[in-house]
Amino acid sequence: MPGIASAATAVLIGYVAGGTTTIRVGAGGIMLPNHSPLVIAEQFGTLESLYPGRIDLGLGRAPGSDAATARALRRNPQADADEFPQDVQELADYLSAAPRHAVRAIPGTGLKVPLWILGSSLFGAQLAAYLGLPFAFASHFAPAHLMQAIGLYRSEFRPSAQLVRPYVMLGVQVVAADSPAEARRLATSTQQAFVNLRSGRPSTLPPPLEGYFEQLGPAERALLDQILACSAIGSPGEVRAALQAFIQRTLADELMIASQIFDHAARLHSYEIAATVMSER
């Protein structure tokens, strides 16, 4: 998909982990219907062997692209999506200390790479609860079922060897700048990208466009209001207030902050502001 560095997730994770020393690096995520569980177990077993204790494996059910791409991957998107729960359990078995399968993931067996279930609907919440895995919800671009999904996950959670109590990570769009006007200008890149994607014209992230939101019609404005409902856009004070309110409303254990900002320096500054305001909580 244009604008998203997702085609070779394990390769990218290795590059990021190799350029850092302490942060955890995870897949957000591997769309398991596109892959063999054994291959993913060996890829992430290799990463865990190279960077012990720093690798997380997020797993999603969506095909992640269109039917033509699925065919190019030699996959059957509907059938493979239906087998997602079994594939997750097969992958977990390959990474366990005593796999039931005759085939072994090498490296992988016994490394216990932490698994996450990713979702934007109730299905992922139910599966994460059933398997006793941490749950990450894509509220940064699909917030419609957020509260229902995390409520279902918490109420139906069953403890597992990996996790004894529910653990929720939520995505949040953050565009922070020194002034509200500058943050809103920077946010037009995200707005354009979503409008383009939902209009069937996926693109790389466009540069900011002054007055973009004001030029849109009612349908496009309503679309952005829905997609970006879980966002914090503005000055440091505005971002602090928005994130605090979001955490209070959802009781999130962890946030995954996405800052789709065209200029790299401005993006880094946005993350710095977000880190500062979060540390002041």
Textual characterization of the structure:
The protein has 281 residues and is of the alpha/beta class. The protein has two domains: 9-170, Alpha-Beta Barrel (TIM Barrel), CATH 3.20.20; 174-279, no CATH class. Helix content is 47%, strand content 14%. The protein contains 13 helices and seven strands. The chain has helices spanning 9-18, 37-50, 67-72, 77-82, 84-95, 122-131, 146-156, 180-186, 188-198, 212-215, 218-227, 236-250, 264-279, and strands at 25-31, 55-60, 115-119, 135-137, 168-176, 231-234, 254-258. Strands 1, 2, 3, 4, 5, 6 and 7 form a seven-stranded parallel beta sheet that branches. α7 (146-156) links the parallel β4 and β5. α2 runs parallel beside α5 and α12 crosses α13. The longest helix is centred in the C-terminal third of the chain and has 16 residues, at 264-279. The model has no long low-confidence stretch (mean pLDDT 91).
Give the topology.
Elements: H1 9-18, E1 25-31, H2 37-50, E2 55-60, H3 67-72, H4 77-82, H5 84-95, E3 115-119, H6 122-131, E4 135-137, H7 146-156, E5 168-176, H8 180-186, H9 188-198, H10 212-215, H11 218-227, E6 231-234, H12 236-250, E7 254-258, H13 264-279
Parallel strand pairs: 1-2, 2-3, 3-4, 4-5, 5-6, 5-7
Helix pairs in contact: 2-5, 6-7, 12-13
What Rg, in angstroms, do the CA atoms define? Answer: 19 Å
In angstroms, what separates the terminal alpha carbons?
Answer: 36 Å
User: CATH class of the largest domain, please?
Assistant: Alpha Beta
In what range is the share of β-strand residues? 5-15%
CATH arch. level architecture of the largest domain: Alpha-Beta Barrel
Q: Quickly count the domains.
A: 2
The major sheet is characterized as: 7 strands, parallel
Query: What form results from the Cα inertia axes?
Result: globular
What is the β-strand count?
A: 7
CATH fold annotation of the largest domain: TIM Barrel
Calculate the mean pLDDT score and round it.
91
Oligomer: single chain
Estimated structural class: alpha/beta
Helix tally?
13
The CATH superfamily of the largest domain is identified as: Luciferase-like domain
